[in-house]
Amino acid sequence: MKRCAWPKDELNIRYHDAEWGVPQHDDRMLYEHLVLGGAQAGLSWAIVLRKRESYRKAFAGLEPAQVARFDSRKVESLLKDPGVVRNRQKVESAIRNARAFVKVQEEFGSFNAWLWRFVDGRPVVNRRRTLKDIPTRSPLSDRVSNELKARGFNFVGTTIVYAVLQAVGVVNDHTVDCFRHRELGG
Q: Which residues, listed in sequence order, are joined to residue 172 by a DSSP beta bridge?
């Protein structure tokens, strides 16, 4: 069975085969990917993926409405938790983004509705031949990033946003020889 070239260890292989690029419409999962994407800045995805369960525990199941209520004492507690990336800016960003996320939900009914409107509800299916063909950003990630920033989100630069769009299936960047490319509409 042929898959994309990037997953090398068992955890990444399981993530690739079961999740990466699968269209996601659950707001909690969309928020989770925004948090993990921001946490990844400057780190490898493997590090963040290994910390995923710890993030879920430390950040109230990554329920945005609950995280939005975190205060400065909670921030200090999180900065002592070895299960999360202990970077003040990234921890505070997860909380700030939860507050902005809730505002988007209030305005659009769901974050899902807001996000998927950028692609008229249908994933962008690319035909990448190799890992080198996959960009780190796109005009779509530029637009989404700019609108997120305008709505008060941070740690949502275009590269982070592109990775999130790939992860949640807004963009299918499985290489054409990968078994998941066809399974996900390629």
A: 125
Q: Whole-angstrom distance between the N-terminal and C-terminal Cα of the chain?
A: 16
Residue-wise pLDDT for 52-65, tens only, equals 999 999 999 999 99
Q: Check residue 118 and report its DSSP letter.
A: G
Q: In 10 A of CB 36, how many CB atoms? A: 22
| pTM metric for this prediction | 0.96
Two tokens at 169?
Answer: 């299936």
Of 45, 37, 24, whose CA–CA distance to 119 is shortest? Answer: 24
Q: What are phi and psi of 22, to 5 degrees?
A: -80, 125
Which of 47, 77, 60, 40 is CA-nearest to residue 164? 40
Alpha-carbon Rg for the chain in angstroms: 16
Phi, psi of 58 (to 5 degrees): -70, -30
- Domains of the chain (ranges plus CATH)? 21-183 (1.10.340.30)
**Cα–chain center distance at 48:** 11
Element of type H or E holding 60: none
Q: Going by C-beta distance under 8 Å and a sequence separation of 6 or more, which residues neighbour residue 77?
A: none
Mean pLDDT of the chain: 97
